[in-house]
Design goal:
The protein is α/β, with parallel strands linked by helices.
C-alpha cells in the first residue's frame, strides 16, 4: 500500500486567558512560551507526527510569513530571565493565583500538558493539571486561566480574526485577546485587494501577535 503524510488545517495550542493573573502580564506569557519544548511534546504526544507551530495557522495558509517575527522556541534560560524580569526570580506556584492547568483527558492534549508541566518545573514553576469534559465551553466563556485546545484555520489568514480579534471574544478567541491594533490590521487585510499588500499587512500582524503571546501554538498535526 501507499501512504501520504498530510497536515490538516489544525493547530494544537496551550491557551492563556490574558485577562487573568498572572497571564495578564506579557512577560509571564513570553516566559512560559520559551519554556515549551514543542519537539518533545510532538514526540511524546504524537510519536513525531506533527510540525512545530509558531502561530495558530501554518505556512499552507495565505499570508503566514514569519520573516518579521521573533523565533520563540525552546529556551529555558531565556524563560527564567523573563520570569525574573517579571518579578519572579525564584519561580512561582500557580496555586498562589488559584490557577490550574485544564486539559482534555485521555488523548494527545493530556500528554502535551504533562510535558509542559515538566517544562515549567524546570524553570521553577509549579502547576496542577486537571481534566475538563467541557473544553470548548470553558474556553469560549473564559472559564480558565491556562488550558489545552485545538483550533482549525483556513487557506487565508483572514480567518484567524475569529481567534484573535475583539469581536470574536466568546467564540473562538479563547485567549480573550482584545487589542485595537490587531482588530485594525485584520480589517485592513479584509479591505485590501492587492495580494502583495495583504501579505505585508499579515506579516506585520503575525510578528505583533507572536510577541503578544496570547497562546503557545504547539503543533500542526500530521
Amino acid at each position: 500500500y501507499n501512504y501520504q503524510l498530510v497536515a490538516p488545517l489544525h493547530t494544537a495550542v496551550i491557551v492563556f486567558n490574558v485577562t487573568v493573573p498572572p497571564f495578564d502580564n506579557k512577560l509571564i506569557r513570553q516566559a512560559f512560551s520559551y519554556a515549551a519544548d514543542k519537539e518533545t511534546m510532538i514526540q511524546v504526544a504524537r510519536e513525531g507526527f506533527g510540525q512545530v507551530a509558531r502561530i495558530q495557522a501554518g505556512t499552507n495558509c495565505f499570508g503566514v510569513d514569519f520573516s518579521l517575527a521573533e523565533d520563540i522556541s525552546y529556551n529555558p534560560e531565556k524563560a527564567k530571565a523573563l520570569l525574573a524580569e517579571a518579578g519572579y526570580p525564584d519561580g512561582m506556584d500557580l496555586a498562589d493565583f488559584g490557577v490550574v492547568f485544564k486539559t482534555i483527558a485521555g488523548g494527545y492534549h493530556e500528554k502535551i500538558a504533562q510535558v509542559f508541566q515538566q517544562n515549567l518545573a524546570d524553570i521553577g514553576v509549579k502547576v496542577e493539571i486537571i481534566s475538563t469534559e467541557t473544553p470548548d465551553e470553558d474556553a469560549a466563556a473564559g472559564d480558565f486561566a491556562i488550558m489545552n485546545e485545538g483550533l482549525s484555520y483556513r487557506a487565508d489568514f483572514s480567518h484567524n480574526q475569529s481567534q484573535y480579534t475583539t469581536k470574536a471574544i466568546g467564540s473562538a478567541n479563547f485567549s480573550q485577546m482584545s487589542d485595537p491594533y490587531v482588530d485594525e490590521m485584520f480589517e485592513k487585510g479584509d479591505l485590501e485587494t492587492d495580494p502583495e499588500v495583504r501579505k505585508q499587512i499579515y506579516r506585520e500582524l503575525i510578528a505583533y501577535i507572536i510577541d503578544y503571546c496570547p497562546s503557545i501554538p504547539i503543533m500542526h498535526r500530521q
